[in-house]
Design goal:
Glyco_trans_2-like; single chain; nine-stranded mixed sheet; globular; Glycosyltransferase; Spore Coat Polysaccharide Biosynthesis Protein SpsA, Chain A; 9 strands; 13 helices; 2 domains; transferase
């Protein structure tokens, strides 16, 4: 069995998948499974994988097709097919540096016997120049997701987890919505564990027009229940007051987009209710600004 699963959820990214495959072929070691969950592509991705001679590659390739439901549903669906002890999610738009798998497994082998380590997080860099996204990670540091967030960690990273922990959590699925941001799930997966933060770029990202990351705020507003779930996670007492204030404003604003009144909205959480209350009226201002700007 491979030590690592590289999980790629995809939707209508056939040309980009070929580039990702090329980067996997360049890895310095091949002790990994490439697991692709196709979230209902209609651009010929399925036909391309069906015709791909997987026996020609030095690593295992597993492809599964599902009805379109959003990236988070593809991640949920993947649980039954993961073969590696550890998992890293690599989006279809992106690449790995040539020694990424070797670097990831080197660190996991070092910390494998430490049951308190639930994840190892590496840096992402820009595809064009490899410039890292976050300067808050320096050297190698053992911490927690919430502590690093409180210290100002921001931007996208390359999170890796023990598969046993990743399988324990499913993203929530909301009717008529197809997007849930991922950071809250990374918090829940490792909440009772420590995370090793490594200042090595192993993942190269390119944000394309139409991609989830670049769609930004409008995507979150179009999926308000999932966005409110994400904000609610950061109301937990693990996070500092500044973060809880910000996310209480987001929680309330997305509640307005859902169409819920104060009592209905606040009843969905037991965290930071006082902050939610004092931010309820100010959140109407943000709601109307976003409604005018994004037209939802």
């Amino acid at each position: 069995m491979p030590e690592l699963t590289i999980l790629t959820p995809c939707f209508n990214r056939k040309p980009r998948m070929k580039k990702l495959l090329e980067s996997l072929e360049q890895q310095t070691i091949f002790d990994f499974q490439w697991l692709i969950i196709d979230d209902g592509s209609t651009d010929g991705t399925k036909e391309w994988f069906d015709q791909l001679d997987k026996a020609l590659y030095s690593f295992k390739i597993d492809y599964y097709y599902k009805k379109n439901g959003g990236k988070h549903t593809a991640l949920n669906y993947s649980h039954q097919f993961i073969k590696g002890k550890y998992i890293v999610i690599v989006d279809s738009d992106d690449r790995l540096v040539d020694n990424a798998v070797e670097t990831i497994l080197t660190y996991w082998r070092k910390y494998e016997s430490d049951s308190q380590i639930g994840g190892i997080t590496f840096q992402r860099g820009e595809l064009r120049n490899h410039r890292k996204f976050d300067d808050k990670i320096v050297g190698v540091k053992e911490s927690t997701f919430s502590a690093m967030t409180n210290e100002g960690m921001s931007g996208d990273h390359c999170e890796t987890f023990r598969t046993s922990l990743f399988r324990q959590r499913n993203f929530p699925v909301f009717r008529d919505e197809k997007f849930v941001a991922e950071a809250a799930m990374w918090y829940f997966i490792t909440r009772n564990y420590h995370v090793i933060y490594v200042d090595d770029v192993v993942y190269l990202a390119e944000y394309l027009d139409g991609g989830l990351t670049k769609s930004g705020r409008s995507l979150r507003i179009s999926n308000p229940r999932g966005s409110r779930w994400h904000a609610r996670a950061f109301l937990n007492s693990d996070f500092n007051f500044r973060i809880r204030i910000k996310n209480s404003l987001l929680f309330n604003t997305y509640s307005h987009f859902i169409g819920e009144n104060y009592f209905k909205a606040v009843s969905t959480t037991t965290n930071s209710r006082f902050i939610l209350t004092i931010n309820w009226l100010p959140s109407y201002g943000l709601y109307y600004i976003w409604k005018k700007k994004y037209g939802n």
